Amino acid sequence: MDHPLKPLTRGTREPKMFAYEMHKVNQAELLREAAAQRLVHEARAARRARRNAGHEAEGRVSHLRDLRDRFAHAA
Question: DSSP secondary structure string, 12-23?
């Protein structure tokens, strides 16, 4: 009588199939992660483009960094 928790013997296909299924699960997870990272990157690029789109006609506005470079530091 076979015990339900009997370890698999060598030569059966179950260990190979288990490894293959685990590989497929890992592959699917990596694909989901890559898609999520791509989506974040695209959202940031779109936000940056929207933010900069309104400034194209007006030209660049000086920034605090520019002001620091223009004036000498007090002694």
Answer: -SHHHHHHHHHH
pTM above 0.70, yes or no: no
What are 10-64's pLDDT values in tens digits? Answer: 556 678 888 899 999 999 999 999 999 999 999 999 999 888 876 665 556 666 6
Cβ contact 55:61 at 8 Å:
yes
Buried b (16+ CB within 10 A) or exposed e, 32-58: eeeeeeeeeeeeeeeeeeeeeeeeeee
Assigned token pair, 23: 């590989």
d(Cα 56, Cα 64) in Å, to the nearest integer? Answer: 19
